[in-house]
Amino acid sequence: MKEHGIGKKRSFGILSNSNAHWAVGLVIAISIGFGLVYLNDFGSSYNTQELPTSSESSVNHIRAVNYFKGPAEPAVVDAIWSSDQVFRVGMLNDGTDKSGFANYICQVLASDFDIRGGQVQVIDIAELANSERWERLGRSYCD
Fold first, then answer.
1. More confident: 94 or 23
2. Distances in whole angstroms, Cα of residue 112 to Cα of each of 10, 49, 60, 67, 83
3. For a Cys-Cys bond, which of 43, 60, 67, 139 suits 80, CB 3.0-4.6 Å?
4. Poorest-confidence range of 7-11, 87-91, 137-141?
5. Could you tell me the domains of the chain?
C-alpha cells in the first residue's frame, strides 16, 4: 500500500517542486529577454531623424545615445531622441522617482556632449513593452 502522509512532496511529471521553480524562473527570464529585444527598437514609432540640422550637434546627439545605452550607465536599458529637444531614457521601475537621475542626465548632456536645453524623460521600459504606454518615472528640464 502507498503511503500518503502530510508533508510529502508529490512530483507531477518531469517538474518536481525545485524544477518547477527553475522553469518559472526560465519563463520569466525569456519573457524579459523578448521584451528587451522588442525594446531595443522602442523609439521606432517616433521619427528619430528629427535631429538638429547642424552636423556637429547631430553627432553629439548620437554620441549621447550611445553613451547612455552603453556600459557607462548600466541601469539604462535604452535611450532615444524623440525630437531634437526630448531625450527619453528607458529604465526598469523600482518604485522611486527618477527626476534626480533625469537631472543628472541633463548635466552629462551639457558637460560631455555640449547639448543644452530641452528635457530628459525617464520612462518605465517594462510598461512600454507590456502596454506600449510611455509611463514617465521622472523628468528634468535642462538649462
1. 94
2. 59, 22, 9, 10, 20
3. 43
4. 7-11
5. 1-39 (no CATH), 43-141 (3.30.300)
Beta bridge partners of 15: 12
Torsion of CA 122, 126, 130, 133, to 10 degrees: -10
Residue 20 has pLDDT above 60, yes or no: no
Cell triple for residue 4?
500518503
Instruction: Report the alpha-carbon distance of residue 132 to residue 139 in Å, rounded.
Output: 19
| pLDDT at site 8 | 47
Q: Which three cell numbers stand for residue 42?
A: 522602442
Residue type, 48: T
CA 79/CA 84 separation, integer angstroms: 13
**What value, to the nearest 5°, has the Cα angle with vertex 126 and ends 32 and 113?**
110
